[in-house]
Amino acid sequence: MSGPRQPRHFGLIPAAGIGARLGAGIPKQYMPLAGKPMLAHVLDTFAATAVIAHTFVVVSADDGYIGDLVAAAPHWQGRITILFHGGADRHASVLNGLNAIRTQVSDDDWMLVHDAARPGLTSGLIEHLIAALRDDAVGGLLALPVVDTLKRSDQDGRVAQTVERTALWAAQTPQMFRYGLLLQALTQATALTDEAGAIEMLGLQPCLVEGSPRNFKVTLPHDVALAEMFLRS
Ligand code: CTP
Ligand code: MG
User: Fold this and answer.
1) Interval between CA 16 and ligand 1 midpoint (Å)
2) Which of 12, 13, 18, 84 to mutate to test the pocket of ligand 1 (most atoms within 8 A of CB)?
3) What does each C-alpha distance from 148 to 54, 60, 160, 224 come to in angstroms?
4) Residue 16 near ligand 1, beta carbon < 6 Å
5) What is the pLDDT of residue 18?
6) Which of 46, 66, 50, 68 is nearest to 58 (CA)?
7) Residue of 83, 106, 80 lying closest to 183 (CA atoms)
């Protein structure tokens, strides 16, 4: 007896940025970290996670690095597809990617959108997110409760206000939503936002699932040493 079709889980990795703030001379997703390029860490993790049916990577149309990366990773065969559909910003890259895979996914399949710049993600974190959202009507994201005391500054760099940190979280990725809802949300979103922000604009409330410090976004030069420490541990 076969029940209703179970929704599948797909990875979608926006990797079409240039990494201006890191200033590595090459797009940061291709920067070597603990022995392999940042994007290879992410794709190895997605490819090795059994619950992920397939993973799509969005790179820019003129990307000159991805070919060598794929050639060096025969174990991604059949697990990873490269989409040369990068846009002007992250939002556009994700939306272009979603549109490009329209015929390959169903509206109720889950999309896990994950930054190429977060190489510290593990299969365990992916499984934790999926388990937490399995029966969720909306979807959600990995995030970390804020532990520092927060200050809002004035124009002179002096404290204007202490911000109550209770109930504040820092958003991470993956952000996990059903394909149909996510496509609608990002198509309609009027401001630059993460996937969760676009869902919120529809009046829905994404679920916060506790992530991990090792899943931080490599953004500035001083982040490199910390990323290597997590990746080696
Ligand atoms: N990204 C993308 N398309 C863009 C811009 C960003 O797919 N046009 C991706 C990046 O490759 C990265 C993720 O979005 O995986 C998060 O963006 P960010 O950390 O800001 O990366 P960059 O935009 O490359 O860095 P910067 O803003 O410093 O230039
Ligand atoms: Mg950016």
Assistant:
1) 6
2) 18
3) 37, 36, 17, 22
4) yes
5) 97
6) 66
7) 106
Q: In the CATH scheme, what is the code of domain 9-135+174-204+216-232?
A: 3.90.550.10
Q: Is 23 in the pocket of ligand 1 (CB under 6 A)?
A: no
CA distance 148 to 110: 33
φ, ψ for residue 74, nearest 5 deg: -60, -20
Q: Tell me what the mean pLDDT of segment 175-179 comes to.
A: 98
pTM exceeds 0.85, yes or no: yes
DSSP-derived 3-state class of residue 37: strand
The answer to whether 96 touches 58, Cβ cutoff 8 Å, is: yes
Mean pLDDT of the residues in the chain: 96
Residues in the chain, total: 233
d(Cα 4, Cα 180) in Å, to the nearest integer?
Answer: 18
pLDDT per residue as tens digits for the range 108-163? 999 999 999 999 999 999 999 999 999 999 999 999 999 999 999 999 999 999 99
Q: Which two tokens stand for residue 125?
A: 């974190």
